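Request: Not sure, any thoughts?
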Amino acid sequence: MSVFRSNKQIYVQIINDITGNTLVAASSLGMETMPKCEQAAKVGELIAKKAVEAGISKVVFDRNGYLYHGRVKELADAARKGGLNF
């Protein structure tokens, strides 16, 4: 599960490391009216829901060098709560 954070948006995708294919993805596009941490939590819930529907329950969390704080932490906590294990 790879996270990319821009100044305004947050994106997350679950990638098969062997083939390099994206299995499921989610982003905060269209959620601009919410505060950034709430956006990250919603994206975490959304990626967890999509992953569980695709039969994925265990992932490796790649925060791409971002500190585990703020939006990245909110996303991770929401994904764990949604059923992903990492």
